Amino acid sequence: MKKGADDYLVKPFNLEELILRVGNLIRRGMKPEELKELNSYTIGDKTIYFNSYELHHADGTVTSLTKKETMLLKLLIERRNEAVSREQILETVWNYDVYPSTRTIDNFILTFRKYFEPDQKHPIYFHSIRGVGYKFTDNNNNNESSEG
Question: Which of 34, 39, 57, 59 satisfies CB 3.0 to 4.6 Å to 148 for a cystine?
Fold first, then answer.
């Protein structure tokens, strides 16, 4: 600690504790503009409003989203173009309080593909990364909003 360490773990350590501590260190190291609150995001012709748990379609219809759907979408969008592990999803969305089955996370991704993908069999936004987790890719979108 005298040499500049932020934290330490005594062996043997719990993997969950290590992941939480690393996450905290990463958040502490982020610049203020990286910590801004993401309130909405547009994918294709649909806009997600995170605070109201709503998905607005181009035709004016609105789909209500569950809290878990909204949290998972927000996590994937905030980490766009990065592989997000199942463990990170469990920690962030389910807080490790409830351990959903592997299929639960898969089913959420299938739902997102139904909402957003022009062709669900050939996704351009929501990708499965075998043995890791999932990745959201949206290289054409720079219009996220932090207004609220």
Answer: 39
What pTM was estimated for this model as a whole? 0.69
List the domains of the chain with CATH numbers: 15-136 (1.10.10.10)
Cα separation, 51 vs 70, whole angstroms: 9
